[in-house]
Write a structure and sequence with these properties.
Two copies of one chain form a homodimer. Chain A is α/β, with parallel strands linked by helices and 265 residues long. The first copy, chain A, contains eleven helices and twelve strands. In chain A, the strands form two sheets. A seven-stranded parallel sheet of chain A has the order 8-7-6-11-9-12-10.
């Protein structure tokens, strides 16, 4: 097994990784992203995610990461040892494991329509929130993620890292407008809206059949376009005189209330 | 009203703010922190939080922030206009509102014991998670936050920003070990533990009386010390073959299940 050292930021591969690290657009264009950390690497191996390159930090790869190298060496991806400074410049977290993969994005054939549960993200901006939302959805049993054009890229290195492997268990459809959701997603469209509607807990029946939970952006909540296609508006009854919930927390509450109700039946 | 311009990073006030921005230890030592954004400033005004200084960005203060200036001018805090580059160097978010307050931390008299609901944080590292956890707890009606020494500072600029004002509605006790929790918190100690225990939804009665929900660190979950003082271990039944939830999402699920049950009674 050869380890190819990279020590200069002028190196073409490094420049490519830097682009992938910094830009959701580059991730989309290249059809590849960076997966940092032991857990993501483990999941990628388990799920046979195509690996383009294995990237090691010249100093400070942790013991857990070391233990994965044998498994990674069985594949055909080339290995690179990146100068620590260069590694840190492309790592989505401050104190990474020292092991990063360049992985190929899955090619997803978009079906005519989705007759299953969906989490719809409308203008969610923060990559960390995007990743956490995908992780929470998958944990709740909802594996279809549909995102509006206004969302940050679902596959950015930061979103992937926050998703902790859930991306690889999900089907993610990006750039879907609220109007398109109507034809594409067959489930009942439920708007999580802090500004009104019915009490999530006091309202019966919304969990029946497939649902499309619609979650809005960090600052503004759901857009008018999204609200106008919702069939039902539900709010989480939070403490009076209190700010709304973070979008990831709100999604956790709604999706697990759905899960709780379905398990009871 | 005087606006004092600051253009050099050698300025003593700027250096102080930079320390507050970068170090939880400095926040603790100085008894002050930075509150960026319109919403935090609004909450600080409403709740009469002591303001040491009003800090404006020389370029790009947004319209919403402008509208708060009148209210802030009624106070006695001096105003500073910080060069944009300097402002961005101390802002906890990338595209801030251009309005930041230096606020004094509340002085909290620690009572003998707490006979109320508590959220206990054990080694939570990420300031964003800390803030979101406090926000979620307050929204669920739990206003006592107790944190272990291993946690990141609850009042760092980043944690405060993620808390979106919830800090000012909470009583936050830091540096409390799991052993101390036993004497200090009178409620039933519930461990949120992905590794075992009883099903959160299938288990009756845990929501009665005050509770102490214990949440562990991002990577490791609850420490042995915390688990050993727990009276009950509860897990969230997530989808099989799936990674655990993010700590903020897990807390949202547990605290709102508590809220749901209590509202039903």
């Amino acid at each position: 097994m050869q380890y190819q050292p990279i020590q200069s930021e002028a190196n073409a591969r490094f420049k490519r990784w830097k682009k992938l690290a910094d830009s959701g657009r580059a991730v989309k264009k290249e059809g590849a992203t960076l997966a940092e950390g032991v857990h993501l690497a483990q999941t990628a191996l388990e799920r046979s995610v195509p690996i383009n390159a294995v990237i090691l930090r010249s100093k400070g790869i942790n013991a857990e990461a070391e233990s994965l190298l044998t498994g990674l060496q069985r594949g055909s991806a080339p290995f690179f040892v990146l100068d620590s400074t260069l590694y840190d410049a492309i790592s989505p977290v401050e104190h990474g494991a020292g092991l990063m993969l360049e992985v190929r994005l899955p090619v997803l054939n978009r079906p005519q329509s989705l007759d299953e549960d969906v989490l719809y993200l409308d203008g969610v901006q923060d990559p960390g929130n995007i990743g956490t939302l995908i992780r929470t959805a998958v944990a709740s049993g909802v594996t279809n993620i549909v995102a509006s054009a206004g969302c940050a890229n679902c596959w950015s290195a930061k979103a992937l890292r926050a998703g902790m492997g859930a991306h690889f268990a999900a089907a993610i459809y990006e750039n879907v407008s609220p109007e398109e959701v109507v034809g594409f997603c067959r489930g009942r469209r439920l708007a999580a809206d802090a500004r009104g509607g019915s009490d999530l807990y006091a309202t019966a029946g919304w969990e029946k059949g497939p649902t499309v939970w619609m979650m809005g952006s960090e600052g503004q909540g759901l857009s008018d376009a999204a609200l106008s296609v919702a069939e039902q508006r539900l709010y989480i009854p939070i403490q009076a005189d209190c700010e709304s919930l973070n979008v990831s927390a709100a999604a956790a509450v709604c999706l697990f209330e759905q899960r709780r109700r379905r398990r009871e039946r």
